[in-house]
Amino acid sequence: MPTQPPQRKRTTEPMAIPRITKVFAAVNIGSFRTSAMIAGLAETGDLVVLGSGYRASAGIKRGYVIDMVAATHCVRDAIERAEKAASASVQSVWIGCSGAGLASTTARVEVEIGGRRIEQDDIEHLLIAGREVIQPDGRQVLHAQPAHYTLDGAHGVPNPKGLHAERLAVDIHVMLADGAPIRNLKETVENAHLKVDSVVGSPVAAGLACLTPEEREIGVALVEFGAEVSTVSVFVSGMLLGMQVIPFGSGDITDAIASAFGIRRYHAERLKCMSGSAIASPADHREMIPVNAPGDPEGSGPVARHADDKNRIPRAELISVITQQLGYFTEEVAKALKAMGFTGQRGQQVVLTGGGAQLPGLADFAQGALGRPVRIGSPPTMLGLPPGNATPSSSTLVGLLLYAAAEPVDIRAIGPKWKPEGEYRGFALIARIWRALREYF
To answer: What is the CATH number that goes with domain 20-101+180-248+328-405?
Structure first.
């Protein structure tokens, strides 16, 4: 009788993490939650999440720092939790900003090439010339980046080096903010013994995490539904063309619930998250939901208005309060989109993200209110990303890491290889003439 081959013992081994070549850290200081994440760039080119941490925010109101000591404690606590999870320490972080009077603008600059091949110093010439067209009007420039190039009217050129053209142009995206709130934000982080690599506008970070390149090219509106601040941004032709800030967030819905039923914010937040919805159903009138959480001592907290003897309220009334607030929110979003010219054939797709976007039924509600297709945007799948961070509430945080790993070009930091006031002299001039002769003869 043939013998059976020995059975191999099955073992579950953890997935091997590729070798990390560079480490990035990000902190997002929101009005509701302060979160931190550490990621590494693997030798394969993939971004690997190493650890994350968060805690309830304090000292932040509508995106502005109002208590630096409390806010600094939250940053330090969140980054320490992320460091513990990552088994690594960090000395610098990229931070997001959704308040501070954020504004977005674009500038265009063009230079003559004369039909020859475009070289690297031509590109640097163009970008350095772009510094002169930036007009901050007394505000602080967070970042000024080349969005895409144009060659003789051909738009959307990613890298013009090596191509021939008569004229070369570039569209520069500039993110502006009020100086004092940005200094408060940076000092808050620095007081937590961390260096600030850069302050990034949250629409830029969230757009990297939630939007596809095709959406950004065709035209899309990104709505970040935060706790106390929401931003509405428009992307067209691959770049951020405009944005507006709405001083309204999901926390205002919580406050409306607390006011309508005369209950504490803690209970209102729980009702919104556990039983809330943006879409009503016929069964809501028959469903009674308890105000108190399981395990709460009997009689804890006030009895809600319209509650029965067990302190339960009709779900229909809860949803009525929520949809009333959402009606105001979508009206403000519609006004912002109209003001930015997001209409017609290009003004179609809307993507909702942020913590407030996790409310069940919100995409359907917003689609009906805005008259446009709406989807919920979440961060992309990444190695090591915890399920708790693969949600709309972490879009900006993950986007900050994607932004850092992309090593974005800022025209203000371009080296002095080409100086606007200088000319080609000596060997540089001879080399330039030789290249031109070689191309034309």
So the answer is: 3.30.420.40
Q: Do domains 20-101+180-248+328-405 and 103-177+411-440 have the same CATH topology?
A: no
pLDDT digits (tens, 9 = 90+) for 275-285: 999 999 999 98
Name the residue ranges covered by the structural domains of the chain.
20-101+180-248+328-405, 103-177+411-440
Q: What is the mean pLDDT of residues 369-392?
A: 94
* pLDDT tens digit sequence for 26-82: 999 999 999 999 999 998 888 999 999 999 999 999 889 999 999 999 999 999 999
Q: What distance in Å separates the CA atoms of residue 30 and residue 97, rounded to the nearest whole number?
A: 8
**Residues 43/50, Cβ–Cβ less than 8 Å:** no
CATH of domain 103-177+411-440: 3.30.1490.110
- Asked whether the predicted pLDDT for residue 3 surpasses 50, the reply is no
* pLDDT-derived band at 392, boundaries 50, 70, 90: very high
State pTM to two decimals. Answer: 0.86
Residue 295: CB atoms within 10 Å: 6
Q: Which residue type, as a one-letter code, is found at position 283?
A: A
Phi, psi of 72 (to 5 degrees): -65, -40
Given a cut of 70, is residue 438 above it in pLDDT? no
The Cα-based distances of 90 to 39, 205, 223, 398 in angstroms read 11, 20, 31, 17
**Percentage of residues in the chain with pLDDT exceeding 90?**
63
